[in-house]
Every structure is written in C-alpha cells, then in structure tokens.
C-alpha cells in the first residue's frame, strides 16, 4: 500500500514514480517528473521548479529558464498522454505565479 506524503491517505494504484520510470524522458523531463512526483500531490511554484531543473547545471541554466521550462512541460504533457496522469498549470497567490503538480486525469 502506498500512502500520500501529505495526508497519510491511501493512494490507489502505482505511484507516479513507478509509472514514469518506464516513460522515455529527456534529462530535464526526468528532473521535472521526479520533482513533481516527490511533491505529489502538492503543487510547486514555477521559480522552484526552474531552480530544480538547473540546480546541477554548470552555468546556472539558460537566460530564459521559464520559457525553457514551459517548452519542456508541453513536450512532457504529450508523453504523459495515456498514462492517466497530467500536469495542469494553475496560477495563484501573490503575483499570480504558475504552480505545477501531477494530477490523475479524470
């Protein structure tokens, strides 16, 4: 049985990490999936996700990392089709910041 890290409730079926380990992903896609899966079911603000993406990059990342993140997320959403999971974009909070999280498709 798998439990939710936030509420301690039961998660039906395989965990996100178990599902996505067999999906062919690029390095940045893998960082995003791993980050979102570790935070599941909580959302992560886009600045934190960008920080995770380029944490180990020797130059700190590209000049427009948010743009790169959005492109990678678009490709990643296509790869997730048929897995039963998606990554919606929600804007909230001060400054209307984008927040991302893994969600089961309805």
Automatic annotation (TrEMBL):
GO terms classed as biological process: phosphorelay signal transduction system; regulation of DNA-templated transcription
Keyword rRNA-binding: no
Keyword match DNA-binding: yes
Database matches in InterPro entries: Sig_transdc_resp-reg_C-effctor, WH-like_DNA-bd_sf
GO molecular function, one term: DNA binding
Positions of region (Disordered): 87-106
Protein name as catalogued: DNA-binding response OmpR family regulator
Organism encoding this protein: Mycoplana azooxidifex
């Amino acid at each position: 049985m798998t439990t939710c890290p936030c509420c301690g409730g039961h998660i039906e079926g395989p965990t996100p990490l178990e599902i996505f380990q067999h999906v062919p992903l690029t390095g940045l896609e893998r960082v995003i999936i791993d980050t979102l899966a570790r935070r599941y079911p909580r959302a992560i603000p886009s600045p934190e996700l960008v920080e995770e993406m380029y944490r180990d990059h020797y130059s700190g990342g590209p000049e427009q990392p948010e743009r790169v993140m959005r492109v990678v997320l678009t490709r990643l959403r296509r790869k997730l089709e048929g897995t039963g999971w998606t990554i919606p974009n929600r804007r909230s909070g001060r400054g209307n910041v984008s927040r991302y999280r893994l969600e089961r498709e309805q």
